[in-house]
Specification:
Shape: elongated
Strand content: 5-15%
Number of domains: 4
Largest sheet: 8 strands, mixed
CATH topology of the largest domain: Rossmann fold
Strand order of the largest sheet: 3-2-1-4-5-6-7-8
Distance between the termini: 24 Å
CATH architecture of the largest domain: 3-Layer(aba) Sandwich
CATH superfamily of the largest domain: NAD(P)-binding Rossmann-like Domain
CATH class of the largest domain: Alpha Beta
Radius of gyration: 26 Å
Structural class: alpha/beta
Helix content: 40-55%
Number of helices: 19
């Protein structure tokens, strides 16, 4: 079926963006909004977006006029008779969507495809309210629609033959990359992203780490474009809570239970940037203030350090770097020094080495998440007996050596892995369940969530065996079911194969 004309129902920010995407691809658009004031606001959003593109040199004035000429605003569902596809972009409330689909049933041709842009509701439940459920499909765009390249195409158990392929072909005409999935709560992107964000809230509320350190672990330690807590404030804590409730209702596992702090903040009206206050406070500094406190006052760099490690290259490199910075380095804990530093492994506790050195209060661990070099992240690991002065001195030392620092407790995975590895395990389980391929998941997370590398690219880079060992250590240390290594990960580790090289499962 060739899609020559579409209807977009609902002209909020997302709906206006989707209308623009269709019009830019040369497709005629009827933009429906029953409220005239809302219709005018939506068209205003579209006009403003196109004007910005002209001002930035991405469109000419003639192209702007041509695109705008393809969009016809309307306040009457009777205008939908000629549409080959109608997509609703109304609020995420089932009763509202079912009402819209009743109108689409009456107004659209019997062969027209009816699409929903829902990000969290059941497409099957929406289709069940239609007189023609076989032509109902999910077409989930990401915000901002003109920029984000991913479209999740969601089929139901009653979707007609060829509907998903037709919508996927349409997405490609729009310059988007479609990923076809079946109807399951959260689809790919939200089902992976939201539990990861929720886990970050859990780390914050249990005082595992401060908010800024959690966010810095994600950006500087993993390379993600935004930290999870800052991203939650951008999404809206109420929106995130709603999606988590949908996920928990579908899967019922502890991993999907909303963190109590997430619920408390949403209930208090601290819903994020839109409210001026969420996990962070907005309106002052651009990044907001951390309500849980930062790392405290700066300390002087220690003049002398006792370095303890496994005698590997890392220990040698650290010793050389400290010596080059004018710091006296000794390997003998009996020698006087300002700080005892353990070159830490993320899967071995620092405390035993601290106790063996005989100076546990003066000892911290330093774990590097990448190779030595300016700008790399260093985790300052504080044991249960590390003094505040030792932690501050270790932080100052790492800064002197050119590292960005976060502070982490002396627990398996420290901070970066404790945040990331359960997220990677979720992705493996999604493939293990046969819901999506590793390639589709990486596509969804890079194009839909802005990840520089998808979960399976990260696993392949670290090695399946290393991720498996890390999850096993965290599962043993914490006992949380979300840390249990998925069997599929164990299979890849045993076979020594990457997910990128693995054969695609039969669908």
């Amino acid at each position: 079926m060739e899609i020559a004309k579409v209807a977009v129902v609902g002209l909020g920010t997302m709906g206006a963006g989707i209308a623009e995407v269709f019009a830019r691809a040369g497709i005629g658009v009827v933009a429906i909004e029953a409220d005239v004031a809302a219709l005018n606001r939506g068209i205003g959003l579209l006009d403003a977006s196109l004007s910005r593109a002209v001002s930035r040199g991405r469109l000419t004035a003639a192209e702007q006029a041509e695109i705008r000429g393809r969009v016809r605003p309307a306040a009457d569902f009777g205008e939908l008779a000629a549409a080959d596809l109608a997509i609703e972009v109304v609020p995420e409330r089932m009763e509202v969507k079912r009402q819209i689909f009743a109108e689409l049933d009456r107004a659209c041709r019997p062969d027209a495809i009816l699409a929903t842009n829902t990000s969290s509701l059941s497409v099957t439940a929406i289709a069940a309210a239609s007189e023609h459920p076989g032509r109902v499909i999910g077409m989930h765009f990401f915000n901002p629609a003109p920029v984000m390249r991913l479209v999740e195409v969601v089929s139901t158990v009653v979707s007609g033959d060829g509907v998903a392929d037709t919508v996927s072909a349409l997405a490609r005409r729009l310059g988007k990359t479609p990923v076809q999935v079946s109807d399951r709560a959260g689809f790919i992107a939200n089902a992976l992203l939201l539990p990861y964000l929720n886990h970050a809230v859990h780390l914050l509320e249990t005082s595992y780490a401060t908010g800024p350190d959690i966010d810095l672990a994600a950006t500087a330690g993993v390379g993600l474009p935004m930290g999870p807590l800052a991203l939650l404030d951008l999404i809206g804590l109420d929106t995130a809570l709603s999606i988590m409730e949908v996920l928990h209702g579908e899967f019922g596992l502890p991993r999907y239970a909303p963190a109590p702090l997430l619920r408390r903040l949403a209930d208090a009206g601290r819903t994020g940037r839109k409210a001026g206050r969420g996990i962070y406070q907005y309106g002052g500094s651009p990044g907001g203030a951390d309500p849980h406190g930062g790392n405290g006052p700066d300390a002087a760099t220690p003049d002398s350090v006792t370095l303890i490690g496994a005698g590997d290259d890392l220990e040698e490199d650290l010793a050389s770097a400290m010596a080059a910075a004018g710091i006296t380095v000794t390997a003998n804990a009996a020698d006087p020094s300002d700080l005892v530093l353990v070159a830490a492994d993320a899967w071995r506790p620092v405390l035993p080495a601290s106790l063996a050195a005989g100076r546990p209060q003066d000892t911290v661990g330093l774990h590097l998440t990448g190779k030595l070099g300016a700008g790399r992240l260093a985790e300052i690991v504080q044991t249960g007996v590390s003094s505040a002065a030792a932690v501050a001195a270790g932080t100052a030392l790492a800064g002197k050596l050119g590292f960005t620092t976060v502070r982490a407790p002396d627990r398996p995975g420290f901070l970066v892995a404790a945040l990331l590895y359960p997220h990677l395990a979720d992705a493996v389980r999604m493939v293990q369940d046969g819901y999506a391929t590793a390639a589709d998941i990486d596509t969804a997370m890079t194009l839909g969530c802005g990840y520089p590398k998808g979960p399976f690219e990260l696993i392949d880079a670290a090695g399946a065996a290393a991720v498996l060992a890390g999850l096993a250590a965290m599962h043993e240390g914490y006992g949380y079911p979300e840390f249990a290594p998925p069997p599929l990960l164990a299979e890849h580790a045993a076979a020594g194969i990457t997910f990128g090289a693995a054969p695609r499962p039969a669908r």
